[in-house]
Amino acid sequence: MNKFLTLLFFSFVLTSCAQENQTAFKKEALKNEMVALNGSNIAFKNILKKYKGKTVVIDVWASWCSDCIKGMPKVKALQSQFPTTTFLFISMDKTSEAWQKGIQKYEITGEHYMATDGMKGVFGKAINLDWIPRYMVIDKKGKIALFKAIEADDIKLIETLNTLN
Length: 165
What we know:
Elements: H1 2-20, H2 27-31, E1 33-36, E2 41-43, H3 44-50, E3 56-61, H4 66-81, E4 86-91, H5 96-105, E5 111-115, H6 122-126, E6 134-138, E7 144-149, H7 155-164
């Protein structure tokens, strides 16, 4: 029985670590349609193509999320610290109006898109979204260099950006 529990525990740990070290987006995420600020639809894979060759920080957020709003000063500090990095904001807001008002109200500078089906939708499930804000880092080749951070001042996030820039 002890051997079984030990094996089960290590399987869980390895599975958890594998999810946290994901280096590519799932097909479902790449095919997912998002909305651009101008109202047009664009597949996530085409958003990523626009920034290939650049280091990208993806900030998954929503205007209704108090932790997201509290974290914005830290995001702005990161933007100052890494001025050549592209900051891509993906909103989980329920309406375009709330999303755009949030961008203006909190003076969020960067590239903006909105997932159309919320945190539990296709994109959210494909990236194992269980909390926002959620930060990811994409390297210049388009691979995921950091799959998950929930604080903009997370040491893993900063170390990853220092390595890539």
